Amino acid sequence: xxxxxTFVFLVATVLAxxxxxxxxxxxxxxxxxxxxxQRIEFEIETDxxxxxxxxxxxxxxxxxxxxxxxxxxxxPAFFMQPCQRVDRPRSGRPAxxxxxxxxPGWRARFAPxxxxxxxxxxxCKDRRGTxxxxxxxxxxxxxxxxxxxxxxxxxxxxxxxxxxxxxFPIGQNLAFVGESQFVTPPRVPxxxxxxxxxxxxxxxxxxxxxxxxxxxxxxxxxxxxxxxxKPPFAPLPGDEAxxxxxxxxxxxxxxxxxxxxxxxxxxxxxxxxxxxxxxxxDAGARLQxxxxxxxxxxxxxxxxxxxxxxxxxxxTTDDGEYWLGRTTIRVTGQGAxxxxxxxxxxxxxxxxxxxxxxxxxxxxGFYNPIDCRLLDDLVESAEQHGLYLQLCLITRDVYMRxxxxxxxxxxxxxxxxxxxxxxxxxxxxxxxxxxxxxxxFNEMDPGLPLDRFYRDVGQYLxxxxxxxxxxxxxxxxxxxxxxxxxxxxxxxxHFYLRPxxxxxxxxxxxxxxxxxxxxxxxxxxxxxxxGEFGLADPQWRPTKEMRESPxxxxxxxxxxxSALSGTSGTALFWWWDRLDPRNHYPxxxxxxxxxxxxxxxxxxxxxxxxxxxxxxxxxxxxxxxDRAYFWLFDPxxxxxxxxxxxxxxxxxxxxxxxVDGLQPGAYRVEWWDTRTGEIVRRDRxxxxxxxxxxxxxxWQRDLAGKVVPFSTGPSDRTDSVSKP
Length: 724
Description:
This protein is α+β, with helices and mostly antiparallel strands. The chain contains 12 helices and 44 strands. The strands form 11 sheets. The protein has a 7-stranded mixed β-sheet, covered by helices on one side. Strands 2, 4, 5, 10, 11 and 12 form a 6-stranded mixed β-sheet that branches. It has a 5-stranded parallel β-sheet with strand order 16-17-28-29-30, with helices on one face. Helix 4 packs parallel to helix 5 and helix 7 (508-522) packs parallel to helix 9 (553-563).
């Protein structure tokens, strides 16, 4: 068997079943009734055990559902380690304490889209054949949930919900969520609440962060980090032909190896634990293992340098001890020690706690239990706060090396592994209406031959994802081919304005509008987003002024310019660690209120046909046959002018805007302060000629306006009436 398939599964004692008898499968719904588009969960029990329960080639567990309308749906189930979570202090701030809550097992989740009675059963396919559970039933009742985010059926440039309401993303990146990051898991609900309260509704989240933040599938190791040198691995003595490796520690200055997993290891107080494995040592070497204040009374010495001997250290936690203390393996004397199969469990047995100690686990095909549970919580928090997520799923560097030749076996294996990962994502998080977009990669190399990858994985999702989530990807330079790819539903571009030559854009507003125009050139009939945007220094880092200035002009200008640029949502600002400390979230509220009544999917919006007196002022906007929305920007108010050059813009007055192409009729004009959200003036205008002329109020920095049909309702009280 290929060595990459022989790793022992992390959390369970999961060896292939010794007998060939058919496995019994049992299904239990956790609710008897659920609202439309809401989650129902199922427990699935089976007597069979598997070497790698994440591999559908070894075990394919599915739900088969019969809808009220008579359709049959097949939905993948998923294997998971249940965990209890409590946020406890660690190193001076709250941390997510996650501890196994019973043995691992199978689950399934489903969100019904039809009201009525469903029947459901579980089906297990493995090497022994196909096994099915007895059927169960549940009911779907009406709810006020709007459903999943879709491409609009009326105007494919924009989004809508399953129930038909338009959806316009307003939000940012919150890419790195992790124990060592600015945003820790305990802070997620607080930040989500602030975003939601201020009108934001969309976040781009990475689940592909290697070992510095969330990464569902990546190498997380107790022995090294992705940015550091090679771990101290060596071929397994006596079994070199197998390709298996183990730890090798040499005596001397480097003879001390910390056990340092990327996730802090949770423990229970007043509980006995066993750190076990096996060791082989040169004749002159000595081994000592320390866990907190516990260690072997005497260093362990080898009687036979050719033999493996058991390694075991037992310790009992104190009252209030919830975390694994500093753990070190030290070799003294002369020579080296080899350590294999290091494991930490409760002394009485139970799931593996030190899964990051595994040496031979493949990078792909293992979905770690901690980050999966953290993503469960993150998605649930998004649901509670009305936020929608673009999840960047695939750890790029774990796949990129195998995607250089589309005719190679490595390329085919990468496609298969990506399908398995997406299958798991659909099974575990796909039922959430807060999951809007699966983004395959963050900033993949646009020069790689990826059309086949996106085609094959995209077609697989079309068969597997019963919810029809949208699909996207991103590249480190613009990729027109990705914008046009039929299996990529959302076009994307990333851009950072940096002080380098040649400088493509004068300021942040010109950069947003330029990238929006490029997206619409290459993605004229699909949703398109500026997936990352911001200022940066030449090395893509925040500048000194960005770190120190209380101004957030670049963010404010980016969201307003992009909202009225023709893209399908706001530019997703990157520097969340600038927005959060000074609570810049209220900048979202005026924009959210301004765009709330724009009929994105039904007004046939197009770039505004308008001119403005005053050559220095920029105008961005959209119009339909009977309405227009626009934003005015004074370039003297750009980040560079105000923060770098310390120039304050003056007041602009006596301007007019001429809008061409509107139908004759009576219109209501509103002028909005973009920082307070106040309507500074309302006008009523009557149009009976080709051009609508608007008198602009006095303004400074930027100003927004909207022109909509006038009606006699209470909202149409006017402060002035004019005729062009």
